[in-house]
Design brief:
heterodimer, A: 108 residues, two-stranded antiparallel ribbon, elongated, B: 392 residues, Rossmann fold
């Protein structure tokens, strides 16, 4: 973990003076189960991309391309909404070392 | 140009707000504060001020509106009493922690139950750890003076904390006295133009207000609030001095009344200090060297200053118009004694008085001075935690 600023160097009132900073907060460390993409069963309907509350579904050239595990909280909405005949997303128990690896500076 | 007017405490609060001409006022009625904002609303209606008035549906909404308005960079005010303050307490803590310099007259009134509309300090003491500065007024003049100064203190870059200007319900809020106002131009020059350090409406400089701070950052934000209160000690004294140069009425944290040669003294907040001054005068005619320690700022508490005064005295009674259940006595006694401990702490007695607006008379305070004189003369302190005006 990198060294965090002391109280004199933290912005007053807990205000963040830079935009788009939530990208730096790696909420992936909260995850208990991780979604795993199975490309051979996927038709790239992109329901998962539309519904993901964390914008953690990656898309390349219009095709489903996996997950941003730094920010995916493992809610499982994508797996639930993936069409049953495809079943292209499986939820598997996250291993501790992977959860640790997903942690960024300042994460708990 | 200054004017000498007949004003109630509520009028004086409204006059001060008028002279400041704040950008936004959130308004909700509650006895005995109602007339303060009512009068201010008439200034808005008549175009005397160009304040944006927000008529909200509760005090929780009033403080929430203040939060949003202050975050947008507007000079913002509201006012309340009693249950209203308790209802907005959740947001009061957020306003302070976010370092938004809102100014709020609090017309002190007892809190329910039983329901009661009269003065005690239970409401503002309930919020003593909310992170707001608290200034207490002795009379109508001080309501005007303290309200003006509150803006300078709150908005000072080393402080940036909201301020409660506390005035005793009915005793000050509804009592008419002669008071001097500064007039708009002088008041405007004194408070100066408000330059907020950010605005939520500044789309060129987007910011995030109220983000999550967990175990990694929360503690540091609290430490900054502690620092701001410490800075406020100096700023309050500077602003009070400057105000004195302008008006002849200077202010500090503590007003010492006849303490130079005093043996005994009463320490209190608010209008009771005026009554105590009268009692001190009569006791001096009877040969008791009595004085009054009038505490103006309860937050930040000038603990060392109080301790130095108490150390010079033979016996001190601390009067609390509120009580801390399970501790006995009130917050003022316990805080003053914690600083004075070791040097004078043993000669301090606590009186809880005036709950629910029960009158405190000159004769009551003379009785307390007589008791202090007995202790100072070598009599046993006996019961430390006492009551004044309670039926046994």
């Amino acid at each position: 973990m990198s060294k965090l600023p002391g109280w004199r160097d933290v912005p007053l009132g807990g205000i963040i003076f830079e935009a788009g900073n939530s990208d730096q907060y790696h909420t992936g460390s909260w995850r208990a189960y991780r979604p795993v993409h199975v490309p051979e069963r996927c038709v790239s309907c992109l329901r998962c991309w539309v519904l993901c509350p964390d914008s953690a579904v990656l898309v390349e050239d219009g095709e489903m391309a996996g997950f941003d595990y730094d920010h995916c909280k493992g809610c499982g909405l994508c797996a639930r909404e993936c069409p049953p005949k495809c079943h292209a997303i499986e939820m598997v128990l996250d291993r501790d070392e992977e959860a640790e690896a997903a942690k960024g500076p300042g994460d708990e | 140009m200054s004017e000498r007017l007949a004003l109630t405490g509520n009028d004086a609060g409204a006059e001060a707000l008028k002279d400041v001409n704040p950008d936004v006022a959130a308004v909700f009625p509650i006895t005995p504060q109602t007339e303060l904002m009512h009068r201010f609303c008439s200034f808005v209606h008549d175009g005397v001020v160009d304040t944006e008035l927000i008529c909200v549906e509760s005090e929780h909404s009033a403080q929430s509106a203040c939060f949003g308005s202050a975050a947008a960079g507007a000079r913002t005010v509201t006012a309340t009493s009693s249950q209203g303050l308790l209802l907005m307490a959740e947001i009061c803590a957020i306003t302070a922690s976010t370092r938004l310099p809102v100014v709020m007259p609090v017309v002190n009134r007892a809190i329910s139950a039983p329901i009661n509309i009269h003065c005690d300090h239970s409401d503002s003491m309930f919020c003593r750890d909310s992170g707001w500065i608290q200034i207490y007024c002795e009379n109508v003049q001080e309501v005007y003076d303290n309200t003006l100064q509150a803006f300078r203190i709150a908005e000072h870059p080393d402080v940036l904390l909201p301020v409660m200007v506390c005035l005793d319900g009915f005793i000050i809020s509804h009592t008419m006295e002669a008071a001097e106002t500064m007039g708009r131009p002088a008041a405007q020059e004194f408070v100066g133009e408000y330059r907020p350090r950010f605005s939520l409406l500044d789309t060129a400089r987007p910011i995030t207000i109220g983000p999550l701070h967990l175990t990694d950052f929360y503690f540091e934000v609290k430490r900054q609030q502690i620092e701001a209160m410490d800075n406020a000690r100096r700023v309050i004294a500077e602003v009070g001095r400057e105000y004195g140069e302008l008006t002849g009425r200077g202010y500090g944290h503590v007003e010492e009344y006849r303490l130079d040669d005093a043996d005994v003294a009463i320490l209190a907040l608010g209008s009771t200090c005026g009554t105590a001054k009268v009692a001190a005068d009569t006791m001096r005619r009877r040969g008791v060297k009595a004085g009054v320690i009038k505490l103006r700022t309860f937050r930040p508490l000038p603990g060392e200053e109080l301790a130095a005064i108490i150390a010079r005295l033979g016996a001190v009674a601390v009067l609390d118009r509120s009580v801390s259940f399970g501790l006995r006595g009130g917050p003022l006694f316990h805080e003053a004694r914690s600083f004075a401990a070791g040097d004078g702490g043993g000669r301090m007695v606590s009186y809880v008085y005036g709950l629910g607006g029960r009158d405190i008379h000159v004769r009551d305070l003379e009785g307390i001075f007589a008791e202090l004189a007995r202790i100072q003369g070598g009599g046993a302190v006996g019961e430390v935690f006492r009551y004044c005006g309670l039926r046994e």
